[in-house]
Amino acid sequence: MAKDMTLLWGSGSPPCWRVQIMLEEKQLQGYNQKLLSFEKKEHKSQEVLDMNPRGQLPSFKCGKHILNESYAACFFLENQYKSQGNKLIPDSPDAQALMYQRMFEVLTLGQKMLDLVAYKFRVPEEERHDSAIQRNKEALTAELKLWEGYLNKTDSCLAGKEFTLADVVFFPVIAVIFRFGLSSESHPALAKYYNSLKDRASIKATWPPHWQEPPELDVMKTI
């Protein structure tokens, strides 16, 4: 089964990491994969464009099916391999509703994180405005306060005691935020969550290879 799958991915990209975690959780190791460099613009190569006309990663093919959106790939793999690996959609309507709600809220968190980091990375220093950086910091600070509150009310994972699709999509984003210097002291519930899951087999097996190096930014230290 896994031999019919191909994943083109970039190190440290939350959408790519989600698909990798998902494949591990469903015991689909042994798929074809290729690590590409964002810096070298390899995500704009013909190889990627043939699979993903948007020129983005991940680019994922499962048999004849192409699923380049990470959420789509996660849902598809869970539904196609229900009886294999870990079950990631709970049966309980309460847990299921909470899981879906948190999953889609992650999109907002990811965007606010990206607004702050991308502004630092992509906007030339002479064109940056302190007021824009401050606005982005304030937006992310308020967003993280929400998640801190959510995690104070759950047992260990986002939708209860069990690891679900919500955690698959959330963990890579929060891991990036901690990598960029988020304070554990200021965010104890998020830190507890992050530390409790970073050694989970599926996460450990797919840890971004370039994260052996120190991070380039400490942009989250003042959040």
List keywords for this structure.
223 residues, alpha+beta, Glutaredoxin, Glutathione S-transferase Yfyf (Class Pi), Chain A, domain 2, 2 domains, 4-stranded mixed β-sheet, 50% helix
What percent of the residues sit in helical stretches (DSSP H or I)? 40-55%
Number of strands: 4
Q: Hey, roughly how much beta strand do the residues contain?
A: 5-15%
- The helix/strand order is EHEHEEHHHHHH
> How would you sum up the global shape?
globular
Radius of gyration: 18 Å
Profile the largest sheet.
Answer: 4 strands, mixed
Count of the separate structural domains: 2
Low-confidence runs of at least 5 consecutive residues: none
Helix segment count?
A: 8
Helices and strands: which structural class?
A: alpha+beta
Q: In CATH's first tier, which class of the largest domain applies?
A: Mainly Alpha
Mean pLDDT: 92
Identify the CATH architecture of the largest domain.
Up-down Bundle
Distance between the termini: 44 Å
Main-sheet strand order equals: 2-1-3-4
CATH topology of the largest domain: Glutathione S-transferase Yfyf (Class Pi), Chain A, domain 2
Domain GST C-terminal: 92-217
Protein name: Glutathione S-transferase rho
Organism: Amphiprion ocellaris (Clown anemonefish)
GO molecular function: glutathione transferase activity; maleylacetoacetate isomerase activity
